[in-house]
């Protein structure tokens, strides 16, 4: 005969909430860090073919206060460290030349960890001055003080510059993530 354990809440011995199990089977963790940040204005003048950090400066939400709005990165501490699923969407346009190539980087502690190549924007005709990026992956932020940030490197014909475009009232340029475990 199978054993049945009936429980709705699991608490730590110090009395803090641990897990809640709803009648439909959904398990809720009380302290699962998640965040989303975007830009409040365009980030202009990005130098041709130079890896440049994207300065996400508006916190949409951040349940663990891990986003550092001075250095534009997500930093973990002993309470939030773990494996994170990170995603980023970025929309850029170039000034002074066509986009010859571009890469988007999710960096861990300043080094490229995951990269993606941009795709030309296509509405009616392919644009040579606009590109859209999307990248996602899992980053090991298991040591207190580990951080991740986002960088772009675009190659513009004739040495032009790039602009990372903010989304206005919608989110089209943002980064977000949550701890898996």
List the helices and strands and how they pair.
Blueprint: E1 9-11, E2 17-21, E3 27-29, E4 34-38, E5 43-46, E6 52-53, E7 58-62, E8 67-68, E9 73-75, E10 82-95, E11 99-108, E12 111-117, E13 119-123, E14 125-141, E15 147-156, E16 161-164, E17 174-179
Antiparallel strand pairs: 1-2, 2-3, 4-7, 4-17, 5-16, 6-15, 8-9, 9-15, 10-14, 10-16, 10-17, 11-12, 11-15, 13-14
Radius of gyration over alpha carbons? Answer: 20 Å
- Give the count of structural domains: 1
Q: What is the straight-line distance between the termini?
A: 33 Å
Briefly note the CATH topology name. Answer: Jelly Rolls
What gross morphology would you assign? elongated
Pairing-aware structural class of the strands and helices? mainly beta
- Low-confidence runs: none
Largest sheet: 8 strands, antiparallel
Write the CATH architecture name: Sandwich
Q: What is the highest CATH level, the class?
A: Mainly Beta
Q: How many beta-strand elements?
A: 17
Series of secondary-structure elements, N-terminal to C-terminal: EEEEEEEEEEEEEEEEE
**Taking all residues together, what is the mean pLDDT?**
89
Helix content, binned percent: under 10%
Strand content: over 45%
Number of contiguous helices: 0
Descriptive notes:
There is one protein chain. The chain has 181 residues and is an all-beta fold. The protein is built from no helices and 17 strands. The chain has strands at residues 9-11, 17-21, 27-29, 34-38, 43-46, 52-53, 58-62, 67-68, 73-75, 82-95, 99-108, 111-117, 119-123, 125-141, 147-156, 161-164, 174-179. Strands 4, 5, 7, 10, 13, 14, 16 and 17 form an eight-stranded antiparallel beta sheet that branches. Strand 1 and strand 2 (17-21) form a beta hairpin. The radius of gyration is 20 Å and the shape is elongated. The model has no long low-confidence stretch (mean pLDDT 89).
